[in-house]
C-alpha cells in the first residue's frame, strides 16, 4: 500500500502535461477491423503511417487481408496500402528501406497470390516488388532482418539453407534476393538467431539461444564479412532468451529478455553492455522485475521489447506486473541509468490494476514522443483495445545538455531536436526568452509544448568560447584553364564550412570560407593566383646539311621558360621539334622546324683499272646522280693531296692512286665526296696447255703467268669467264682458250688441238689394228711434233715423227715383238703444248 500511495502522490505532482504512459484516445487503439491476433513487428514511416505485421486477419472493404497492413497516423486502416490478401502465414520481421520499399520476413510462402517463400520486398504502396527473387529462400522461419549501408540484407532465424545452399542460421542477401556467398559466419549458433543489429562501422551484433551450441553465450559481434570479432567479449545469461536489443549512439547495447544475471553479474530482465561486450555495472543495479500469475504463483517475467526516447529514457514492455514492489502491467519506463522512472504512470484508474489481458511484443516511438505498443492483448489498464495502442508521453525536449557556442550567439544557435521549445533563465521563471537573446555563459532551461500542453523544463549548460580563425594550406598559383584543386571543407584546425564564389580558373580570385553554423569560427579568405600562359620563344636554328651536327636545342627559352624537346635530334631529315614547358610554368607548347638540306647525290666509291698495255688517259667523273652539273662546284684530290686547278666535273688520269672529288652545292654549300680507286692491271699470258687422259673426252689444264688474277673461257670469247683453269670432259678437236685479267683488261687467246689416240691395238698381222698411231694432227700447225712411247718402267721404246704417210708403231722394239701390256706416250706438239696418255697392246 505504501508503494501505491507513493505512486499516487507522484501522479498528483505532475503538471498539466499529458500523462506519460496514459492511453492516447485520439488514436484508434486497435482498429475495429482487426480481429484478435498478434502483432510481431512495427515500422513508423517518416510520414507517420504505421506498418504492422504479425499473425492476424481483417476484412478490408470485402477483401480478407492477412498478417500485414498499414495504419494512418490516427490508427485507421490505410486503404491505399495495396497488400491485397496479404501473406498466408505469420510475418515476424519488417524493415523500411531508404527508398521507401519494405522488406518483410517470417513464415509465409505466398503474398497476395504470388508464390514467394519467407522473405519478400514490397513497393512503397504495398504491392510485391517482383525484381526481388529469393528463389527457394530458407528452409525454415526467419525471425529478424537488418540492412547494411550497401543495401545488402542480413537475415537470421531457424535457418539451415538458403536457396538450397547450406548456411548457419544467418545469411547475407544481395539486393536482388540472391545469396551473397562471400559472407561466411565465423561461429556456429545453436537453434536460432533471435535478433541482429548492424553497427555504423558495418560490424554485426547477433543475439541467439547459444553460440557454438553448449557454450551458453548468447551475444557476439561479427566483422562485416561474417567472421567473429575477437575484440568483443561474448555475453552469456543464466537462460537462453534475449528477446530484444537496442544499440545506443555511444555504442553501448541494451538487452532485454528472460534472465537474472549477465556474465555472472546480477541483472534482472534488462541489462546494458559496454561497446566491447563487457557488462555495464552502472546500469540497472537495483531493478527487480517479477510476474505473479492470477493464482498468486510467482513466475519469471518475460521482457520482449525495448525502445529508447530521444532524452535517453527507456520504454520496456513484455509480460510482468511488478517492478521494485510497484505495480506496472507489462510496460514501464527506466531512466538513462536503468532505474525505474516513477513519473511514467500508465493510468489514473487503479480499479483495474490487476486486470491481465495479454502482453507486448514490440514497440516504437513516434517523432513527437508518443509511444506505439503492440502485441497480443484486448485491453490496456481496463480500456478495451486490440493488439495496438498509442500512449501519451511527457517527453522532455531532446537537447544536448552541455553546449559550447561562440560569442554573440543567440537562443536560435542552440542545438535541439524538439518542437515548440521555450527557453528560460531559471527553472522557476514563467516568461520565456526571445529567440534573439544573446547567450552568456550560464545554465538555461527549456521546455517543449505538445498539443498545447507544456512539459517540464530541462537544463542546458552554455559556455561561450571566442571564435577561432580557420587555417588552410595555400593553393599554389595555377595557369589559366588548369584545374584548381577542390578547396577543403574542413580546415587544418578541424573547422567545417563552405567556400564561395565557385572556383574560377580564368582569373585570379579571392575565395571566402564561411564556417558551419555553431562551429565558432570567423570567416577567412584565400586568394588563388591564376597566371596567363606564355609562348616560349627561341632563336631559329639555321638549316644544316645532311649528317652534319645539329646544335643542342636550349632547355630554357629566350623568355626564361624551362622545358624539354622531343623527339631526339635527327640530322638525316627535316624534322619539327616540340618544346614542352615544365609543369606549372604556365606556358604553351611550341615547335621549331630544323631543315636538313640534302647533300649532292653521287655514285658510291668505285674501283677503276688502267691496263699496263694502254698509255692513254682514263676519264673520271664526279658521279652526279641528280641535278644539273652547273649547280655544283668540284674539287679533285689524289691521295688526299689537292690537285690545283682541277675543278671540272671530269678528270683524266693515267697513274694509279686514290682520287676524290668534293662536290659542293652552290646554293646550300652542302657537300659530298666521291672516291675512285685507280690501279694498273697487266694482261696475263698463257704459259702451257696440258691435255691429259686422251680419250673421247679429255681434261685440259691452262697454265697462265698470273693464275690468281686470271679468268678463263673455253671456245667462247665473250665468256662466261671462270676463275678455274681446268676444263673437264673436253671432246677431241680444235679448241681456243681465252684469258683475261680480273680487272678486265685485254683478252688473250690460244688455239690447240686435242688429238685422238686408240686406247688399244692388236698387232697380230690380221690387217685390223696392227699399228698404234695418233690421228687428227694438224701437221701445218704442229710441224715439229714428236711422239714418244714408253713401257711401264719409263723406258723409251719408240720415237714417232708422224706424217701423213707414217703407219705408227707396230708393237716391236729392236725388231722383237713386245708382250701384251699397258704403254705410255708423250706427244710434244710444240714448246708450249704437251699431251700425255696410255694405251694397251693386246695379242
Beta-strand fraction estimate: 35-45%
Q: Pick out the low-confidence regions.
A: 1-17, 349-356
Tell how many strands the DSSP assignment holds.
69
Largest sheet: 8 strands, mixed
Overall average residue pLDDT: 87
Number of helices: 1
- Shape descriptor reads elongated
Q: What is the CA–CA distance across the termini?
A: 173 Å
Radius of gyration: 61 Å
Helix content: under 10%
The structural class is mainly beta
Question: What does the model show?
Answer:
With 843 residues, the chain is mainly β. The chain is 1% helix and 40% strand. It has one helix and 69 strands. The strands form 22 sheets. Strands 57, 58, 60, 63, 64, 65, 68 and 69 form an eight-stranded mixed sheet that branches. Strands 35, 36, 37, 38 and 39 form a five-stranded mixed sheet that branches. A hairpin with a 2-residue loop joins strand 20 and strand 21 (265-266). The protein is elongated, with a radius of gyration of 61 Å. Residues 1-17 and 349-356 have low confidence and may be disordered.
Amino acid at each position: 500500500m505504501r508503494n501505491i500511495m507513493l505512486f499516487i502522490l507522484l501522479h498528483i505532482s505532475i503538471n498539466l502535461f499529458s500523462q506519460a504512459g496514459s492511453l492516447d484516445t485520439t488514436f484508434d487503439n486497435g482498429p475495429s477491423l482487426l480481429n484478435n491476433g498478434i502483432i510481431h513487428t512495427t515500422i513508423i514511416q517518416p510520414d507517420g503511417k504505421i506498418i504492422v505485421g504479425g499473425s492476424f486477419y481483417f476484412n478490408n472493404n470485402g477483401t480478407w487481408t492477412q498478417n500485414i497492413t498499414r495504419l494512418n497516423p490516427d490508427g485507421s486502416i490505410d486503404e491505399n496500402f495495396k497488400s491485397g490478401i496479404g501473406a498466408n502465414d505469420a510475418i515476424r520481421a519488417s524493415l523500411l528501406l531508404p527508398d521507401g520499399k519494405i522488406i518483410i520476413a517470417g513464415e509465409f510462402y505466398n503474398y497476395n497470390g504470388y508464390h514467394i517463400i519467407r522473405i519478400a520486398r514490397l513497393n512503397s504502396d504495398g504491392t510485391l516488388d517482383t525484381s526481388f527473387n529469393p528463389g527457394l529462400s530458407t528452409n525454415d522461419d526467419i525471425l529478424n532482418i537488418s540492412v547494411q549501408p550497401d543495401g545488402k540484407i542480413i537475415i537470421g532465424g531457424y535457418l539451415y539453407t538458403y536457396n538450397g545452399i547450406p548456411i548457419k542460421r544467418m545469411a547475407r542477401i544481395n539486393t536482388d534476393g540472391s545469396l551473397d556467398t562471400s559472407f561466411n559466419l565465423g561461429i556456429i549458433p545453436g537453434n536460432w538467431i533471435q535478433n541482429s543489429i548492424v553497427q555504423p562501422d558495418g560490424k554485426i551484433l547477433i543475439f541467439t539461444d547459444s553460440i557454438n551450441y553448449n557454450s551458453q553465450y548468447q551475444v557476439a559481434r561479427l566483422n562485416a564479412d561474417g567472421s567473429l570479432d575477437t575484440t568483443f567479449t561474448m555475453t552469456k545469461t543464466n537462460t537462453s532468451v534475449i528477446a530484444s536489443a537496442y544499440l545506443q549512439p555511444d555504442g553501448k547495447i541494451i538487452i532485454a529478455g528472460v534472465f537474472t544475471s549477465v556474465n555472472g553479474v546480477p541483472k534482472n530482465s534488462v541489462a546494458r553492455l559496454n561497446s566491447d561486450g563487457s557488462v555495464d555495472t552502472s546500469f540497472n543495479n537495483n531493478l527487480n522485475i517479477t510476474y505473479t500469475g492470477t493464482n498468486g504463483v510467482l513466475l519469471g517475467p518475460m521482457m520482449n521489447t525495448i525502445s529508447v526516447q530521444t532524452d535517453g529514457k527507456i520504454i520496456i514492455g513484455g509480460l510482468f506486473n511488478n517492478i521494485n514492489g510497484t505495480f506496472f502491467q507489462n510496460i514501464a519506463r527506466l531512466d538513462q541509468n536503468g532505474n525505474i522512472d516513477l513519473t511514467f504512470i500508465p493510468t489514473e484508474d487503479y480499479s483495474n490494476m490487476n486486470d491481465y489481458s495479454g502482453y507486448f511484443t514490440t514497440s516504437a516511438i513516434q517523432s513527437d514522443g508518443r509511444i506505439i505498443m503492440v502485441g497480443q492483448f484486448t485491453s490496456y489498464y481496463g480500456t478495451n483495445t486490440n493488439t495496438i495502442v498509442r500512449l501519451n508521453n511527457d517527453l522532455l525536449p531532446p537537447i544536448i545538455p552541455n553546449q559550447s557556442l561562440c560569442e554573440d550567439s543567440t537562443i536560435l544557435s542552440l542545438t535541439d531536436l524538439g518542437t515548440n521549445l521555450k527557453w528560460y533563465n531559471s527553472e522557476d521563471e514563467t516568461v520565456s526568452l526571445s529567440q534573439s537573446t544573446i547567450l552568456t555563459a550560464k545554465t538555461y532551461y527549456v521546455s517543449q509544448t505538445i498539443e498545447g500542453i507544456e512539459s517540464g523544463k530541462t537544463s542546458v549548460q552554455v559556455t561561450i568560447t571566442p571564435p577561432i580563425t580557420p587555417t588552410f594550406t595555400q593553393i599554389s598559383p595555377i595557369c589559366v584553364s588548369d584545374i584548381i584543386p577542390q578547396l577543403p571543407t574542413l580546415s587544418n584546425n578541424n573547422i567545417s564550412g563552405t567556400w564561395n564564389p565557385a572556383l574560377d580558373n580564368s582569373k585570379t580570385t579571392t575565395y571566402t570560407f564561411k564556417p558551419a553554423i555553431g562551429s565558432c569560427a570567423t570567416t577567412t579568405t584565400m586568394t588563388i593566383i591564376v597566371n596567363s600562359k606564355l609562348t616560349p620563344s627561341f632563336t631559329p636554328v639555321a638549316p644544316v646539311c645532311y649528317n652534319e651536327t645539329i646544335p643542342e636545342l636550349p632547355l630554357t627559352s629566350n623568355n626564361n621558360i624551362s622545358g624539354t624537346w622531343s623527339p631526339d635530334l635527327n640530322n638525316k631529315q627535316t624534322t619539327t621539334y616540340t618544346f614542352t614547358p615544365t609543369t606549372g610554368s604556365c606556358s604553351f607548347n611550341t615547335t621549331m622546324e630544323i631543315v636538313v638540306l640534302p647533300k649532292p647525290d653521287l655514285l658510291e666509291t668505285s674501283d677503276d683499272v688502267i691496263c699496263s698495255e694502254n698509255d692513254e688517259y682514263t676519264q673520271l667523273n664526279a658521279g652526279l646522280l641528280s641535278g644539273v652539273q652547273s649547280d655544283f662546284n668540284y674539287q679533285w684530290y689524289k691521295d688526299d693531296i689537292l690537285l690545283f686547278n682541277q675543278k671540272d666535273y671530269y678528270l683524266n688520269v693515267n697513274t694509279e692512286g686514290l682520287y676524290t672529288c668534293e662536290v659542293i652545292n652552290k646554293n646550300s654549300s652542302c657537300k659530298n665526296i666521291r672516291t675512285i680507286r685507280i690501279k694498273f692491271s697487266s694482261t696475263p699470258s698463257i704459259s702451257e696447255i696440258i691435255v691429259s687422259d686422251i680419250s673421247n673426252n679429255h681434261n685440259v689444264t691452262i697454265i697462265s703467268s698470273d693464275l690468281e688474277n686470271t679468268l678463263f673461257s673455253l671456245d667462247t670469247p665473250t665468256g662466261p669467264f671462270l676463275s678455274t683453269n681446268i676444263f673437264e670432259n673436253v671432246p677431241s678437236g680444235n679448241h681456243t682458250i681465252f684469258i683475261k685479267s680480273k680487272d678486265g683488261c685485254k683478252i688473250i687467246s690460244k688455239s690447240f688441238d686435242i688429238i685422238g689416240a686408240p686406247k688399244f691395238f692388236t698387232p697380230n698381222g690380221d690387217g685390223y689394228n696392227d699399228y698404234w698411231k695418233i690421228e687428227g694432227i694438224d701437221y701445218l700447225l704442229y710441224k715439229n711434233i714428236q711422239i714418244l712411247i714408253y713401257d711401264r718402267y719409263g723406258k723409251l721404246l719408240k720415237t714417232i715423227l708422224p706424217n701423213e704417210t707414217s703407219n705408227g708403231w707396230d708393237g716391236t722394239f729392236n725388231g722383237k715383238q713386245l708382250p701384251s701390256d699397258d704403254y705410255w706416250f708423250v706427244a710434244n706438239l710444240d714448246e708450249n703444248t704437251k699431251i700425255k696418255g696410255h694405251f694397251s697392246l693386246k695379242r
